[in-house]
TrEMBL record, chains A, B:
Upper classification of the organism: Bacteria, Bacillati, Actinomycetota, Actinomycetes, Streptosporangiales
Alphabetical list of InterPro entries matching this protein: ATPase_NBD, HTH_MarR-typ, ROK, WH-like_DNA-bd_sf, WH_DNA-bd_sf
Gene3D superfamilies linked: 3.30.420.40, Winged helix-like DNA-binding domain superfamily/Winged helix DNA-binding domain
Coiled coil: none
Family indicated by similarity: Belongs to the ROK (NagC/XylR) family.
Full protein name: ROK family transcriptional regulator
Region listing for Disordered, in residue ranges: 1-38
One Pfam family here: ROK
Domain HTH marR-type: start-end pairs: 51-100
Amino acid sequence: MRNDGSNAAGEVSAARGVRSPAPPPRTARATPGSRGALDFTDVRETNLAVVLRFVRHHTPCSRAEVAAQTGLNKATVSSIVTELIERGIVEEIGASEERRIGRPAVMLTLDGRRFVALGLEVNVDYLSAVAVDLGEREVLSVHEPFPAASAGPVACVRRLAELARSMMAQLADQSRRVIGMAVAVPGLVDLHGLAVTEAPNLGWRDFPVVDQLRAELGDADFPVSVENDANLAAVGEYRAGSLSHTPNLVYITGEVGIGGGFIVDGSLLRGSNGYGGEIGHMPMLLGGPRCGCGRHGCFEALVGTNAIIRAAVPDLAGDSDELITDLAPKVAEVARRAACGDRHVVDTLDRVGNWLGRSAAVLINIFNPDAVILGGYFVPLATWILPRTHRTLAAHVIAPKQGGCKVALSTLGFTAAARGGAASIIDAIDTARLPLPG
Amino acid sequence: MRNDGSNAAGEVSAARGVRSPAPPPRTARATPGSRGALDFTDVRETNLAVVLRFVRHHTPCSRAEVAAQTGLNKATVSSIVTELIERGIVEEIGASEERRIGRPAVMLTLDGRRFVALGLEVNVDYLSAVAVDLGEREVLSVHEPFPAASAGPVACVRRLAELARSMMAQLADQSRRVIGMAVAVPGLVDLHGLAVTEAPNLGWRDFPVVDQLRAELGDADFPVSVENDANLAAVGEYRAGSLSHTPNLVYITGEVGIGGGFIVDGSLLRGSNGYGGEIGHMPMLLGGPRCGCGRHGCFEALVGTNAIIRAAVPDLAGDSDELITDLAPKVAEVARRAACGDRHVVDTLDRVGNWLGRSAAVLINIFNPDAVILGGYFVPLATWILPRTHRTLAAHVIAPKQGGCKVALSTLGFTAAARGGAASIIDAIDTARLPLPG
């Protein structure tokens, strides 16, 4: 009752095709449990997505490899590849040098020339924007100070739209076209990726970012979505950071607000309604300093950028009820004084390191990640924060040798979230759902 | 350059076969990122696994449905099903009643008569064991008080082996055979599922549970593994609890130690080395009561069963350095006094509810789960703990309406972890890796 060889082999190789590599974290919304599942009724589109995914995750590869590994027949692969090349999505990049025998195969890769994805970030004191091509190579990157918290949501989105339009103009000069845009915001984002439910440190509440941005942009013929900043920063690190493709990552933003982004087995943790990753209000110190949320002793009231500035350089912080502006130069001043050996500043950063270590230990105990990545303003202050953080972690992580977890500094800095936003747009091509006109 | 219909349809249906339903959480260890991937060289075994998985997740189903949905041809399916029936893994259960036209199809389901999986649990004051058949129906269940903490690891495993042998004898009388055994332990478990790295509340350290258990069992011809109790309890709830198949679940054990088990999008969170889920030592109260771990103010030092007994019924707790024995009757006494309106006991449980709420809020903010399930001794005390927990959660969860999260009591009680252990053994048949002799 055994199969005959050819039949069984056919079945297996077809099956193998769908055993695609571990996909990058999805940020697109889907029904929980439907991870990575396709549901196309159109055969051609399904096969196109299979080929595109394969090329994307095995670039560069030959048509023959695509056929062998996806189980699609060679004629089908050839036809699909021709279409993808015509549409500017895939390109040929000459022969593989690894082949020793026979005619060298023409290799395929994603065409980086035509389409780009845009990631934008609004944070308390800056805007960032990154454009990447289909191969996720960075094409353009902008970071500018902007008083988002005091400007209010409408003015903020207006400036964001100006930034986007200016980038799109530059990209158009390079004959590049935007296929999608994701905006990172430090706050809770609604289930559909359209509006910000609450971003306390920006003072936004139930604000329809996407509608507003579309109105400002005029005629954007591509998908626009909004997502939590820490989530997108974690995606950015997973895709393009110094520890990219490390399967279990914890990202901690170092801004006025402290957010967490969690990559679990290569997928972004979003939770049942997309509200996952809120670590800023872990109650760390009963009766501790007042937090922006109204509670006391929250994680971000102890290690957020405002908290650091108020504690380390009170002479620059103004009244306790006042919004602190110009964070970047003030953080630079904190670092300068610490470098000069200012005892008060050094002690303050040591205490910050302690609270950061205690809180990071909570996360390491829960997630047992390969690494915790610190972003934002933790990076320029790391010299004085990290020594204590390491000692506190050693005292508070339960697993032996910290469960193998290391602490790293973001190398993407203030563009991590924008980078992740752009990368998440590129993911959409895996399902061939994006309009990619020929 | 379009495909002709039959060709393309063949490719798509073959591809569809491998798009199996969201698999249940895996507890078997694998390289991170390789989630659910198969790597068989033997074609027959691969196809057998595909058919078995399909029957398991779509039971009852007909041979024709298996063929249509997996893309395997009918002869192959028929041959494989025949083999599975002969091996006692699949059985026919008569015709589907839903078919209105034509000959009624014979339906297939997993054969519950021949093979069972055993889940065992050691906890501070009890042993539990559950046997389930291939369809995960409970066949046998045992729960007995046992002073595991004072008995020491060797005596404890000896008693566990006696329990297992007695169950296996009963199962043998029913012509049932054990295909695997998983042991839940409240502690850190090594990467290979063989030894307990540290179980502070049992006093175990670097203890080779599996070797010891195998030695006691004599001639176990099946896989034996050990796993963290909270992880397995979360799997038990996900598979057999009142909220089964809820994709995002947080389970909190209510034992002497407090452990967390996290189901994220239907998969158990294990972390990079299997050490995930350690929530018992979240530092909740600086300078709080001393924890078994030596630190102060840990979550479990505030809400663990010992902490509750010491605070609520100090007259029954003995000296503070003494091990508290007979937890179940003491917890019953706590409940009795609370029911009688004993002010001290009621206030104590209210405070426990507050700490539980603050800590659960941390987890809800991070995971945005559909539900938090409370197990163990939280269940009999819930009447007096939960009201305050609900109020504290409302004050500490950031997402609106608690992000949709509800708090539920385990209906599996002290057998949740054993139930999850047994279920995790059954998962192995998805990959056809288990020896299932015909």
